[in-house]
């Protein structure tokens, strides 16, 4: 029998992946693994019921990609440093500093060590990204729909972190959690509605977050997933914005984005595995899924018909 236990072509494909990509996958995977173990050790998985088990993964889906992006601040610093506005000094320092904070914050979130503080600072950081970089870039070129898409994506990331801070504050009996959760809801509901419109208008582009990329021909279903996401976003986004059935609406948006990640962005990540493009598209959308699920966790539970009749 001339069979080899190790596939040489698989080894060559693995070795062909640059270190910049490998490091991002490793750090992101490490944070995901730590968070997964923590969920079971804390007993969260055993306590959760139904779709609440999916909501549990919001923190992991948010933190793992953020850790990968934080790693890029060290591996491709010369690309990230120029993104700092020119009027802010010490561009290299801020690139390294933000990367360090991202990785530290993700470890804090998944382990729940000072997680409320970390989530609050992350929410502030992404909001500052919107105010200082992304929104001014869109104002400079308002015809660029992708610039607005990126600004609203960062706003959603801020909303996800704010939702986690609100959830943890509520668990600790802190005041003002309703206000934080409401702000987080609008930070995510407004982008969802805009993304719904964009996906209906441009079905050939990738779903989830309608970024500047056509859906690749090798993705099964192609534009079907973009229109599906647009329809779910439209219905659930209206409910979320109006404050009706918010927990269910956010959960279904999160499930839709997770489905899109599996059928569209995982193939993109595999095909573009030798560059940061693949991991960035995959990570962006997975982190967006995490932000929406974190919002679902911060939304109030709806009383079941049995509970309502018992109260009456």
Task: Give a short overview.
The chain is mainly α and 312 residues long. It has 14 helices and no strands.
Give short descriptive properties of this protein.
single chain, 312 residues, mainly alpha, 76% helix
How does this structure look, described?
By secondary structure, the chain is mostly helical. It has one domain. It contains 14 helices and no strands. Helix 2 runs antiparallel to helix 5. The longest helix is centred in the middle third of the chain and has 27 residues. The C terminus is likely disordered.
Write the layout of secondary structure elements.
Elements: H1 8-15, H2 19-41, H3 44-47, H4 52-56, H5 58-75, H6 77-80, H7 91-111, H8 115-140, H9 145-171, H10 177-201, H11 223-242, H12 246-271, H13 276-298, H14 305-311
Helix pairs in contact: 2-5, 2-7, 5-7, 5-13, 7-8, 8-9, 9-10, 9-13, 10-11, 10-13, 11-12, 12-13
Give the domain tally. Answer: 1
Low-confidence stretches: 305-312
Order of helices and strands: HHHHHHHHHHHHHH
Number of DSSP-assigned strands: 0
């Amino acid at each position: 029998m001339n069979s080899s236990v190790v596939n040489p072509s698989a080894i060559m494909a693995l070795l062909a992946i640059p270190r910049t990509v490998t490091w991002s996958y490793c750090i992101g995977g490490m944070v995901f693994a730590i968070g997964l173990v923590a969920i079971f050790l804390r007993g969260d998985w055993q306590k959760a019921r139904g779709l609440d088990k999916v909501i549990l993964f919001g923190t992991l889906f948010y933190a793992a990609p953020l850790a990968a992006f934080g790693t890029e601040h060290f591996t491709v610093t010369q690309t990230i440093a120029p993104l700092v506005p020119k009027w802010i000094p010490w561009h290299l320092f801020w690139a390294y500093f933000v990367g360090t904070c991202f990785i530290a914050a993700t470890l804090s979130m998944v382990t729940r060590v000072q997680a409320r503080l970390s989530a609050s600072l992350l929410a502030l950081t992404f909001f500052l990204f919107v105010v200082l970089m992304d929104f001014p870039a869109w104002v400079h070129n308002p015809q660029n729909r992708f610039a607005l898409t990126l600004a609203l994506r960062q706003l959603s990331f801020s909303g996800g972190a704010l939702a986690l801070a609100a959830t943890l504050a509520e668990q600790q009996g802190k005041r003002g959690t309703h206000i934080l959760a409401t702000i987080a809801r609008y930070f995510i509901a407004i982008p969802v509605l805009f993304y719904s419109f964009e996906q209906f208008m441009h079905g050939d582009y990738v779903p989830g977050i309608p970024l500047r990329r056509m859906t690749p021909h090798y993705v099964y279903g192609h534009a079907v997933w973009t229109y599906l996401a647009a329809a779910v976003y439209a219905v659930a986004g209206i409910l979320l914005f109006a404050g009706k059935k918010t927990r269910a609406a956010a959960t279904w948006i999160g499930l839709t984005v997770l489905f899109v990640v599996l059928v569209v962005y995982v193939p993109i990540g595999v095909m573009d595995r030798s560059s940061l493009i693949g991991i960035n598209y995959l990570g962006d959308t997975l982190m967006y899924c995490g932000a929406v699920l974190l919002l679902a966790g911060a939304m109030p539970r709806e009383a079941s018909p049995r509970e309502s009749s018992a109260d009456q």
